[in-house]
């Protein structure tokens, strides 16, 4: 598998007419080498590959990395610059979004005018777009922890409990079941705060008659999960229930529209048009979804601007939402994998409207 990923890099090298590829971001480095440390660089040419790291990770690299030659550096930019000079390359493809301006200036100053630097972010992002069966196992295992963890926490979701209490309890429940880490700062947005798409948990207390949006995930084997539920704490206003039903229908229609070859923007449009037809078009501002893998947000993106099509093996979220300032909001999210027949959900919590008791 690793060998095939190196071959994919060499295809990029040929297609883009560069003499070497420089991988800087740890998710991409892990993908092509299996290395789980936190500091390294990979350089790939047509005939060779080099793994560079510092003294902390040399032993670990020798255990995990089976690609090319392992070299130690004291200063990362010096090690990269020296290697590229030895290779005699003239054009180097690199991850422009992963390399800071400061680092890039150091690399460029070392090479003077002998190297042309070619940002190839789109090529690198697509590299991880189609998930192998081993990747799907980790993704499904991570997502599979959600339902039990949430059920453990539900009795705590009562009036007077803070959003932060809910987030912490959910994180502990996931870790207890084998989650390596939380995928991100959990969103627990209750009442009017539900109108904040990224309303991370605060010390606000939950209250009866509110909707509570919970966006959470974990990590297994380096692969992340992401799911959102919106729950009613006691009886809620009929207007909030209409919003929920609208979002759920948009979510279900979008998932039903997933087919190999369909434009990703078309799937976004299915959900967006349903929300607009029900009068809430101005309250759904973000894209419908994003890829999930070694990063919580990665290729592909589902939005009106998406240029790609569904391919079997892609994993992405479907997460329509309606956010009304002063009132609240609803988001419903599942992770799916595109299949030959359509799609399969990796997350398993029921998205039917659910009312929690007040005592």
UniProtKB/TrEMBL annotation:
Domain Peptidase M24 positions: 138-339
GO MF annotation: an example: aminopeptidase activity
Keyword tags: Aminopeptidase, Hydrolase, Metal-binding, Metalloprotease, Protease
GO biological process, alphabetically ordered: proteolysis
Pfam family for this entry, one: Peptidase_M24
Protein species of origin: Geoalkalibacter subterraneus
Domain Creatinase N-terminal: 5-129
PROSITE patterns per the UniProt record, alphabetical: PROLINE_PEPTIDASE
Record-given protein name: Aminopeptidase P family protein
């Amino acid at each position: 598998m690793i060998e095939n990923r190196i071959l994919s890099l060499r295809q990029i090298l040929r297609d883009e007419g560069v003499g070497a590829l420089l991988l800087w971001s740890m998710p991409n480095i892990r993908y092509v080498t299996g290395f789980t440390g936190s500091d390294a660089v990979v350089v790939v040419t047509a005939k060779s590959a080099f793994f560079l790291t510092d003294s902390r990770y040399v032993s670990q690299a020798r255990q995990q990395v089976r690609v090319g030659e392992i070299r130690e550096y004291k200063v990362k930019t010096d090690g990269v610059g020296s290697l590229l000079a030895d290779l005699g390359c003239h054009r180097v493809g690199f991850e422009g979004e992963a390399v800071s301006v400061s680092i890039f200036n150091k690399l460029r100053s070392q090479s003077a005018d002998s190297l042309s630097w070619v940002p190839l972010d789109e090529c690198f992002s697509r590299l991880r777009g189609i998930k192998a069966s081993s990747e799907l196992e980790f993704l499904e295992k991570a997502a599979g922890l959600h339902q039990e963890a949430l059920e453990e926490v539900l009795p705590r979701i009562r009036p007077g409990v803070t959003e932060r209490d809910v987030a912490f309890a959910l994180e502990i429940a996931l870790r207890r079941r084998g989650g390596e880490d939380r995928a991100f700062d959990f969103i627990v947005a209750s009442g009017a705060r539900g109108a904040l798409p990224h309303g991370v948990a605060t010390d606000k207390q939950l209250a009866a008659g509110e909707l509570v949006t919970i966006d959470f995930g974990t990590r297994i084997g380096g692969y992340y999960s992401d799911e959102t539920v919106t729950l009613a704490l006691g009886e809620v206003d009929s207007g909030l229930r209409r919003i929920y039903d609208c979002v759920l229908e948009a979510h279900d229609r979008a998932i039903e529209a997933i087919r190999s070859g369909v434009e990703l923007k078309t799937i976004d449009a299915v959900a967006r048009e349903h929300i607009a037809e029900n009068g809430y078009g101005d309250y759904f501002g973000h894209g419908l979804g994003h890829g999930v893998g070694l990063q919580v947000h990665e290729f592909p993106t589902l939005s009106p601007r998406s240029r790609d099509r569904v391919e079997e093996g892609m994993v992405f979220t479907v997460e329509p939402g309606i956010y009304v300032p002063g009132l609240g909001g609803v988001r419903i999210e599942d992770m799916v994998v595109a299949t030959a027949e359509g799609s399969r959900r990796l997350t398993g919590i029921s998205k039917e409207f659910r009312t929690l008791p007040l005592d």
